[in-house]
Structure formats: structure tokens, C-alpha cells
């Protein structure tokens, strides 16, 4: 049987191929969920990392803030050690107290004394202020007298939304205090403990008890006491051995000898201040007067007599020289004045003229 023929003018009929199904584009629901889960996990990790860095930065800033207060208290102890050791309030030049409570100075008072910058903040980056205490040992004001300054946080460092001390944050702050940091740890609430010290909590009778989680810095140096060796105090038995000049506004009294070390030559020009003292090679005390070094023994320069014809001797053979010079002459800077004359021109006695040296 032959294939049907098409009508004239129309294309030949051909069989249609089977339909091809179109594939669906996009993601599956499972893949999308997995991608969202990974993205969420990364976002949470990144946000936690940012929070940790912010908290670490705040802890370091707090450590620096407390360290500045510790240094200010150390300066205060050094500057007012004598008054504090005697239990007296430090006074200004007009006799007024510098601190309302000498053993509990405030940040405002430390700023007023120039021990802290004028714009030093009242609170740390972690939100607490400072509570400063100074303790005197029972031996004060005798020796050895120990002064300990403690810079406490005025409230404990707690975990957010709880009453539990945040020991991780506490450790971060302590690590930023150059070894002077400590805290009232929950494991030992009756003590303030640091790397190189320990104090009772409370610090002394009548002092407040600080809660666990309270940070603190010890204001001191050396073996348990502030380093005051570079300062001279009242009734100090050490020789300060000053290497420069010393100026005082009042009188100077010495219970022993006053030794003048400067060496000058009598009669030489003087470039020091008028009235300055020095010593000659023979041990004579010299003073700078009218631009010349003169013996600082007042206006009297000794006396002598000259005999004619015996010279610097009495007719009995005794020397009549000036004890100041060993000769019949005045010391340098003095003038001889005739005060007597007499004798017998003829004979063994001779004629004697007496002189006094003055200036």
C-alpha cells in the first residue's frame, strides 16, 4: 500500500517526534536549608568573636585606668609619708588639709593635687569607680612604719544578669596591671589576694568588707612597703649626699661642725656671691667681700710691733710678729694702723712702734 499523497500545493506530512520534558531550574529545599544553617553559624561565631574582643579591650582599659590610680596613690604616699605615718592630715602651704579623709582620698582630691589628669574619668570601662584605702602598720609612727594603699573597685565585677563573679573578666583585668592587681576571689572571700601580696578582707578594723568579685590594686613597691628610700624625712639618720645645690628659706642650724670644702686664696678676686664662704690652704675661713677673698674673722687682723734697730723682736729677744701672719705685717686685705710708739733711741732698748691690722 502506497503512502497517501498530499494534495497539490501542500507540504508532505511527517510524523511528530516524542515531546521532550523541560528540566526545572533553582535550588533544592535541602540545599537551601543547609546554606542558611552555615551562614547563621558563621554569623553567630563572628558576633561572639566581636563581643569577646570588645570585652577584652574593656578589661585592658580598666587595668590601665586602675594602674593610673595606683601610681597616683604611690605618689601621695611618697609626698606625704611623714604626716600619714604619724596619723596627721597632709596640709597645704596655708595649713589647710589637702584631703577630707587622709586615709581615704578621693579621685577628685587626687586630681586637685595634680596626681591625676584633670579629665581623668570617675569610672572604668567596665562601669565601676574607685574606693581608695590607706592602711598604717601598728608600729607607726615608729620604725619600721609601713603604709599600704589599696585601690578597690567600688563594686564587684559580676556576670551579666547574675550575682556570680565574672572570674574570666577579673583575670583579664588583673593581667593588665603589671603584677599589682588582685581581687577578692569567690574561693577565698576573707582575703584580698594578688600575685605578690595578700591582705585581710576587711583591710582593718572598721573598714568595709568587699564582696567576692571586687578587683583591687596594691599601691606599693619593694618588699611590702612603698619605695620611699629616695626621699629624706624628718629625723632621718641617713646622709642624703646631695649632688647639687641646696636652698633653704630659713636659718640653718648644725649640731656639729660645719665644714667648708671650697678652697680659695686670700686676696684673690672673688666671683661668688658677696658673703660666700671658702677655706684657704692653711685652713683659714675666707669670705667674699668687695670682690676679694678675705679672712672671715671680722675687722681685726692681728697686731705687731717693729723695733728700731731690732726689727721684729723685742729687746729681750721675744718675737713681736703678728700671730696671724708670722711676720710683722698684716694679712692680705688689712691695713696697719699705728697705735703706740716709745722707747729709748739710744741704748739696748731701741724705739718700738705698735700696729693694729684693721679693715
TrEMBL record:
Keywords: Membrane, Transmembrane, Transmembrane helix. The chain crosses the membrane at residues 26-46. It comes from the Bacteria. The keyword Membrane applies. The keyword Transmembrane applies. This is Prepilin.
Amino acid at each position: 500500500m502506497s503512502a497517501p499523497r498530499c494534495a497539490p500545493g501542500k507540504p508532505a506530512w511527517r510524523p511528530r517526534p516524542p515531546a521532550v520534558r523541560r528540566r526545572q531550574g533553582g535550588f533544592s529545599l535541602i540545599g537551601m536549608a543547609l546554606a542558611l544553617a552555615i551562614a547563621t553559624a558563621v554569623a553567630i561565631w563572628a558576633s561572639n568573636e566581636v563581643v569577646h574582643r570588645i570585652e577584652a579591650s574593656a578589661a585592658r582599659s580598666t587595668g590601665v585606668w586602675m594602674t593610673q590610680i595606683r601610681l597616683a596613690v604611690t605618689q601621695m604616699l611618697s609626698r606625704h609619708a611623714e604626716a600619714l605615718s604619724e596619723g596627721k592630715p597632709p596640709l597645704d602651704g596655708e595649713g589647710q588639709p589637702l584631703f577630707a579623709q587622709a586615709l581615704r582620698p578621693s579621685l577628685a582630691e587626687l586630681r586637685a593635687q595634680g596626681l591625676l589628669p584633670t579629665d581623668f574619668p570617675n569610672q572604668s570601662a567596665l562601669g565601676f569607680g574607685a574606693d581608695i584605702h590607706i592602711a598604717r602598720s601598728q608600729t607607726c609612727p615608729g620604725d619600721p612604719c609601713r603604709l599600704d594603699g589599696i585601690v578597690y573597685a567600688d563594686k564587684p565585677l559580676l556576670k551579666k544578669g547574675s550575682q556570680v563573679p565574672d572570674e574570666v573578666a577579673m583575670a583579664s583585668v588583673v593581667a593588665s596591671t603589671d603584677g599589682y592587681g588582685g581581687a577578692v576571689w569567690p574561693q577565698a572571700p576573707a582575703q584580698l589576694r594578688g600575685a605578690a601580696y595578700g591582705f585581710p578582707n576587711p583591710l582593718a578594723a572598721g573598714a568595709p568588707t568587699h564582696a567576692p568579685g571586687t578587683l583591687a590594686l596594691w599601691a606599693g613597691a619593694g618588699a611590702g612597703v612603698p619605695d620611699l628610700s629616695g626621699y629624706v624625712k624628718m629625723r632621718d639618720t641617713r646622709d642624703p649626699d646631695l649632688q647639687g645645690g641646696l636652698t633653704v628659706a630659713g636659718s640653718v642650724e648644725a649640731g656639729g661642725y660645719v665644714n667648708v670644702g671650697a678652697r680659695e686664696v686670700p686676696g684673690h678676686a672673688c666671683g661668688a656671691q658677696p658673703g660666700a664662704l671658702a677655706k684657704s690652704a692653711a685652713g683659714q675661713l675666707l669670705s667674699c667681700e668687695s670682690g676679694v677673698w678675705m679672712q672671715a674673722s671680722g675687722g681685726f687682723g692681728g697686731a705687731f710691733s717693729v723695733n728700731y734697730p731690732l726689727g721684729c723682736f723685742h729687746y729681750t729677744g721675744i718675737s713681736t710678729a703678728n700671730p696671724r701672719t708670722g711676720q710683722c705685717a698684716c694679712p692680705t686685705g688689712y691695713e696697719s694702723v699705728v697705735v703706740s710708739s716709745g722707747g729709748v733711741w739710744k741704748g739696748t732698748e731701741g724705739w718700738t712702734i705698735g700696729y693694729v691690722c684693721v679693715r
